[in-house]
Design a protein that fits this description.
The protein has helices at residues 6-27, 32-50, 52-59, 65-80, 83-97, 102-110, 113-119, 122-132. It has 138 residues and is mostly helical. The mean pLDDT is 90.
């Protein structure tokens, strides 16, 4: 089992609450306050889990500047009060930031018994193959 430090445990909690508030804010018709709290908790939790320096290095790599600007710009737009536009920017930035991780995640999900059979259905399979193919850098 993987051992976590206390700060990583706090970070997992903050990230979990951040995802919860983001999801709940979208369910409640893009509530500005919940989305803002979710964004702050998610970014703070990520910083606690992997550390401030590694978080900074992840977001500000030369080939990820476009993705980072969309993601952090979306967070800023949500904080100033335009939640729908901000969430769209965040989602686009999130997909650009983590596009290299998607093939690994889809390969893992395909090996899970029930989810793997769902991903191999005819309509879903072609969509998952497009998302899961390794893309070049941003």
């Amino acid at each position: 089992m993987i051992s976590l430090t206390d700060s990583q445990k706090i970070g997992m909690g903050l990230t979990g609450f951040g995802v919860f508030f983001l999801f709940f804010g979208m369910i409640l018709f893009f509530d500005k306050a919940l989305l803002a709290i979710g964004n702050i908790l998610f970014v703070a939790g990520l910083s606690f889990v992997i550390g401030l320096e590694r978080t900074f290095r992840f977001f500000f790599q030369r080939h990820k500047i476009k993705a980072t600007s969309f993601f952090l710009g979306g967070v800023f737009v949500v904080l100033i009060g335009w939640p729908i536009i901000g969430v769209v920017l965040e989602i686009y930035g999130f997909f650009l930031l983590f596009r290299g991780f998607f093939p690994v995640a889809i390969g893992f999900i395909r090996r899970v018994p029930v989810l793997g059979s769902l991903l191999n259905l005819p309509g879903i399979s072609s969509l998952v193959d497009k998302v899961g193919e390794s893309n070049n850098m941003v």
